[in-house]
User: Which sequence fits this backbone?
């Protein structure tokens, strides 16, 4: 399989994730959609590493995985804090910072 | 043979992604993402990234998704599906935006002048992408990135604990603190709905 196919799959997954962030309103699902977009980026990095016969892209993908894990930890902490305050778990309702 | 595996894995990855976006129940959403991650690990194997595929399955599909499932169970939206997403016009605009983004990315990928992408990929040596090679690179060429990643993980762990901790100001709920008295008049003005509270109050004692 040529590397282009992997890149097209990565682009499709990225677009699905981007559309999901715009459509969904549950912050948990929005975090999952961010995961989708990060994974699409990871797949593209691994495909580039394969195209160049060089492992640097795989290291980059590994670091992206670490950053995604950090994002999950902080995001889920925020959701738990929102839930503790009995606030609605809905990004359209959480608009206090809108001014 | 590689083509068959590629199409199976990519169909799984795309189905998982679509399921993540469209399913109503947060539990099923997380399970769809697990399916997506496992398919992606298969794609990594096809791209000769063995260590990355193993890390994807163990760390991502294992640990991170368990964290998600725990929070979904804690928040407890399982039975009560979230309300249908906003106005239809917004949904159409979102779908249009995603489609336009895909067209743009496809033009960028397929119209590139780099001939390497149209091929199978350049040569790989035995041991490409194995744990040994990745570990050697992490501890030689990418030592700084490795260390910064460990510091980032530490900061994220501490931040998550601080964000999600239970704010027990007082042991006895019948007592009131000076902070409560100071914040009490402000609560009414912001929302006019004392039951729902504001994010501003998140620093105060818990409601019991």
Assistant:
């Amino acid at each position: 399989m040529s590397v282009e196919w992997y890149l097209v799959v990565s682009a499709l997954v990225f677009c699905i994730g981007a559309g999901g962030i715009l459509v969904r309103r549950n912050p948990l699902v929005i975090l999952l959609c961010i995961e989708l977009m990060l994974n699409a980026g990871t797949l593209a990095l691994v495909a580039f590493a394969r195209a160049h016969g060089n492992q640097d892209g795989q290291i980059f993908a590994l670091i992206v995985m670490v950053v995604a894990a950090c994002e999950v930890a902080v995001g889920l902490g925020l959701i738990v804090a929102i839930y503790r305050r009995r606030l609605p778990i809905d990004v359209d309702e959480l608009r206090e910072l809108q001014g | 043979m590689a083509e068959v595996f590629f199409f199976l894995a990519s169909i799984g990855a795309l189905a998982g992604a679509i399921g993540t976006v469209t399913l109503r129940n947060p539990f099923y959403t997380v399970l769809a993402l697990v399916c997506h991650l496992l398919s992606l690990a298969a794609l990594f194997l096809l791209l000769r990234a063995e260590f990355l595929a193993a890390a994807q399955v163990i760390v991502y599909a294992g640990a991170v998704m368990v964290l998600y499932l725990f929070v979904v169970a804690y928040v407890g939206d399982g039975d009560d599906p979230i309300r249908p997403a906003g106005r239809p016009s917004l949904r159409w605009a979102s779908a249009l935006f995603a489609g336009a983004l895909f067209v743009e990315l496809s033009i960028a990928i397929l119209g590139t002048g780099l001939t390497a992408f149209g091929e199978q990929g350049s040569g790989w040596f035995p041991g490409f992408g194995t744990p040994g090679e990745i570990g050697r690179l992490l501890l030689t060429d990418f030592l700084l990135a490795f260390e910064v990643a460990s510091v980032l993980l530490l900061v994220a762990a501490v931040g998550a604990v601080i964000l999600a901790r239970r704010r027990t100001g007082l042991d006895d709920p019948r007592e009131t603190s000076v902070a409560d008295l100071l914040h009490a008049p402000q609560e009414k003005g912001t929302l006019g709905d004392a039951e729902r509270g504001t994010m501003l109050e998140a620093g105060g004692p818990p409601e019991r």
